[in-house]
Amino acid sequence: ALFMYQIGYEWTFVLLIIISILGQFFLPANQSLLTFVVSNEDRAKANGLLQMAYTVSKITGGLLASFLIKQSVSIPILLFLSAIILFLSLILVVKIKPYVKKERVGEGKIVPLMKEGILYILNDKKLKLLFTLLALAMFIVTSIDILLISYFTETLHLGVENISFVGAASMLGILLGSTLTTK
């Protein structure tokens, strides 16, 4: 937020790509922990509830951000607000004691484990195909967002913050799907 006016807007896309990539790990990581927390019979319901909580938080955050942008809250203030919320969540994550205790991975072992995981995916034909399809799907989804932004600004003459309402409708569809999945 302090240096945003000195940094080119192109770096925003790099930041968004990094955030999107990191976001792809959130649900799978939490779903893998469900096996230690709930029984096999309750796993589908717990997975649906996890998906619903994640979706509701994304809808709420998107709509709140859109509302603040419509109220002409400046971008640096929004960035500071985001940084404060991220810092608070970091504190909460550190304070939460995990249900699953595992051996602590040494500092030097993280990078080899990451390389091993990537090599495993590259050597498994089905996983490589799956991750390739997911990457292509993300590029398509990103291009649809760009088309929606163009439609909002050029055709409807509305601000891009209105795209969150489309996103909220999409998230509500995911929420409905995850609710039905638990049944």
What does this structure look like?
The structure is a single chain. The protein is mainly alpha-helical. 77% of the residues lie in helices and 0% in strands. It has seven helices and no strands. The chain has helices spanning 10-23, 26-37, 43-70, 75-95, 110-123, 125-155, 163-182. Helix 3 runs antiparallel to helix 7. The model has no long low-confidence stretch (mean pLDDT 76).
Spatial separation of the terminal alpha carbons:
44 Å
Task: Label the overall shape.
Answer: globular
Strand content: under 5%
Q: The biggest beta sheet, please?
A: none
Poorly predicted regions are: none
Q: Work out the helicity level.
A: over 70%
Integer average pLDDT? 76
Put simply, the count of helices is: 7
Give short descriptive properties of this protein:
183 residues, single chain, mainly alpha
